[in-house]
Amino acid sequence: MRTIGVLTSGGDAPGMNAAIRAVVRTGIANGLRVMGIQRGYSGLMNGEIFEMTRSSVSDIIQRGGTILKSARSAEFRTPEGRKKAYNVLKVFGIEGLVVIGGDGSFTGAKLLSDEWDIKTVGIPGTIDNDLAYTDYTIGFDTAVNTVLDAINKLRDTSTSHERVSVVEVMGRHCGDIALYAGLAGGAESIIIPEEDYNFDELCKTIIEGKVKGKLHNLILLAEGIGGAEELAKKIEEVTGIESRATVLGHIQRGGSPTAFDRILASRLGARAVELLLEGKSKRVVGIRDNKIVDFDITEALEMEKRRDDHKKLYELSKILGY
Ligand code: ATP
Prior knowledge:
The chain is of the alpha/beta class. It folds into two domains: about 5-140 and about 255-305, Rossmann fold; about 140-255, Phosphofructokinase domain (Rossmann fold, 3-Layer(aba) Sandwich). Helix content is about 45%, strand content about 20%. It is elongated and about 70 Å long. InterPro entries: ATP_PFK, ATP_PFK_prok-type, PFKA_ATP_prok, Phosphofructokinase_CS, Phosphofructokinase_dom, PKF_sf.
């Protein structure tokens, strides 16, 4: 293998730049030409490709977003779109492709390798932490810390006004951002798609908290359940305690990556290039029990999330937040 390409696809995540940097510099250190592909699969089909050097990735490890830009492409979902992409890859002499993104991007990479002679490796870049095969995705830790910062501020004002504060966070169908930020932020209640919750019990806990002298009540709500405004309104109606909703939104996708995300991205980026150098294809890299691992893409996407630790964290949050 002489030339590889790297792209970022789907929703952006802090730490993607650190991953790009690791791919470029590991590639160059191993004698490869590394091509940067802009705007994900869309830019790939349009030939938005340039050669990267060590200095193309200078001064980006600390930056959120992605210097390669990200996009979603409906055309790439079609065999014709992927044929177009392959033809462009051929023109640029790209034999291996590193795809930084989520499950949709990985599926696209797998199909490209199934249909054409191009090797692909996926790196998990999404704040949602919704890929079962890896304990953490790049960007998750930074998003949790962003939420934590917001919670700390909301706690101040909720305490002053003795209010209930419902905070809706991202994560799509995965409650990890709500769970981790809730535990770290000392939330009274955490509502996530993976665990049942009972509205009457929630209100009872809020009223009991008030009677015990709690000055505020912080509820973390995962977007998979959604409706923070509606929930706050219902809580106020039932408990008589003033309740406010905050939807954090896209702020969670930005910001300088944490040390954890930068280190994870550096390790995964380097491993992805090593796999291509070993001639591997249709693999994804991840971290399990602090060890860098890799799996077949299909196998990885079919895995179920390891729930034991998750359940323990949830139970712990209930005991500590009560
Ligand atoms: P995030 O988790 O941040 O949303 P993602 O990678 O899951 O990231 P998607 O929008 O699902 O984001 O996928 C990104 C791109 O990957 C799509 O726009 C499309 O070009 C390609 N892709 C997704 N699913 C498929 C598929 N089934 N077949 C081919 N290409 C796909």
